[in-house]
Amino acid sequence: MCAVDKLQTAGDQTFMNLFKLNSTSPIGPVNQTHYPMRPRFIIREDLQLGRYISEANWGLIPFWAKDIKIGRNAFNARLESLLEGKPMFKAAFKYRRCLLPATSYIEFRAEEGKKIPYEFFVEGGAPYAYAGLWESWDDGTGSLESCSMLTTVPNELAGEFHTRMPAILRPEDYDAWLDLKSTPTQLISLIHPYDSSVMEAKRAG
Q1: Cα–Cα distance between 39 and 145 in angstroms, integer?
Q2: Which tens digits make up the pLDDT trace of 151-205?
Q3: Active-site residue numbers?
Q4: What's 160's DSSP letter?
Q5: In which order are the strands placed within the sheet that holds 30-34?
Q6: For residue 43, what are the β-bridge partners?
Q7: Within the chain, where are the H helices?
Q8: How many CB atoms within 10 Å of residue 10?
Q9: Among 195, 172, 179, 132, residue whose Cα is nearest residue 5
Q10: Which of 14, 122, 174, 177 has the most C-beta neighbours closer than 10 Å?
Q11: Which domains, ranges and CATH numbers included, belong to the chain?
């Protein structure tokens, strides 16, 4: 959970405006399915560059890690892990937060002895963003940027499929999540089950 999601967008001005991206980071049309330990887009804030979009490996690799394989178990970060101050996510939560844009995510449910995929949408398929963390790791031969998606307890809809759901942020909370001046208490208050009334799940495939 959550190990598959998608970003399908024209990357047009509407998309740019939603995430307040600067004019120097257009992405154009995108049709991606994301899996752990593969690249995905992240959105972050920089004092000089403003808010921009770039790619990062989906599976957080802390700067102190000895082996890149640690990222295989860190593509999701439980909200509880942040509250507990776990070393894997501690520095990233304090200094390196990001948004992970998407347009849907996939969960599987056992039905008649099979695992059936269901695709979850927000507002009929509009772009949205998960609360995320990012890190830069260097093994001496070059740096690699990586990220993790926060998860929380599920809403009524998501709870029919899994005990967790991605931490989807409300658009009005994007600024606070990226703001380095936000306190841990303020940040934690942004993470909660998304409103199930504006979500839907459709059987995929």
Answers
A1: 9
A2: 999 999 999 999 999 999 999 999 999 999 999 999 999 999 999 999 999 998 6
A3: 2, 107
A4: G
A5: 30-34, 5-9, 104-111, 114-122, 199-203
A6: 53, 99
A7: 13-18, 79-83, 87-95, 174-178, 184-188
A8: 12
A9: 132
A10: 177
A11: 5-203 (3.90.1680.10)
